[in-house]
Specification:
By secondary structure, this protein is of the alpha/beta class. Helices cover 44% and strands 13% of the residues. It has 10 helices and 6 strands. The strands form 2 sheets. Strands 3-2-1-4 form a 4-stranded parallel sheet, with helices on both faces. A two-stranded parallel ribbon has the order 5-6. The longest helix has 15 residues. It is globular. It binds S-adenosylmethionine (SAM). The site of S-adenosylmethionine has 21 residues, from helix 1 and strand 2. The site of S-adenosylmethionine (SAM) has 21 residues, from helix 1 and strand 2.
Length: 213
């Protein structure tokens, strides 16, 4: 499983960040960088599943003590190139985060990382992260399922049948955790569903908005 995942990210590594920028309509960078202001000055920060690491680079530049982990050597290679001489100030580890034994860290960034695991595994990954923080007791407060139970507005979850990064089971689990949420899986589409089948996605959103307005 980890080997499959590594292979998938190895393939997308050269254009992952550009693709994410398109899919997020240019917002993903800002979303990730906004967390820096929550770290205490000089904090030790672990980036798990760092990818090519625009956030980790900004953290190194801001003087944080950065450790960055990724399964994919190509992703880490991109981060290393992007850091240039500053790479010496960070610790880059090519490993499965679930085996990482370092820490404790002051903060852990799991940017767009938990979504790569299925519903059962995600709890284990969170526990592992919390152990690295030495905060196991607060694990409960981070459970997304409790937040999802509190969602009261009409919700539509759109998934893609062939999404290799967000397993269908995980997307379905999201809808099941939100009271009354609808779930649609778009056949024949992969992770870039909004680019692959924009009309289908737009139609589903409009249909949903017409029903709920
Ligand atoms: C969706 S990408 C997110 C990348 C980056 N954090 C971002 O926000 O752009 C998920 C990353 O997690 C890495 N990854 C997947 N499973 C992993 C694991 N078990 N341990 C470490 N990294 C993993 C992938 O190689 C990929 O770079």
């Amino acid at each position: 499983m980890a080997a499959d995942r590594r292979r998938s990210y190895e393939i997308v590594a050269p254009f992952y960040e550009e693709l994410a920028r398109v899919l997020s309509l240019g917002r993903i960078g800002r979303a990730k960088l906004s967390q820096l202001e929550h770290f205490a000055p000089g904090a030790s920060v672990l980036y798990a599943g760092v990818g090519s690491g625009e956030d980790a680079r900004a953290a190194v530049e801001a003087g944080f003590d950065v450790t960055a982990i990724d399964l994919s050597p190509r992703m880490l290679g991109r981060l290393q190139a992007r850091l240039g001489p500053r790479a010496a100030k960070a610790t880059l580890c090519c490993e499965d985060f679930r085996s990482h034994a370092g820490g404790p860290y002051d903060a852990i960034a799991l940017n767009f990382f938990l979504n790569v695991f299925d519903t059962l595994e995600v709890d284990r990954v969170l526990d592992h992260a919390l152990e690295r923080l030495g905060l196991l007791d607060s694990a409960h407060s981070l459970r997304l399922s409790e937040e999802l139970e509190r969602v009261r507005c009409p919700t539509l979850v759109i998934a893609a049948e062939l999404d290799g990064f967000v397993p269908l089971d995980r997307a379905r689990g999201l809808a099941e955790a939100i009271d009354g949420a609808s779930f649609v899986s778009i056949e024949g589409a992969g992770h870039a569903v909004v680019v692959e089948q924009p009309q289908r996605v737009a139609d589903l959103c409009l249909e949903f908005l017409n029903v709920v307005r």
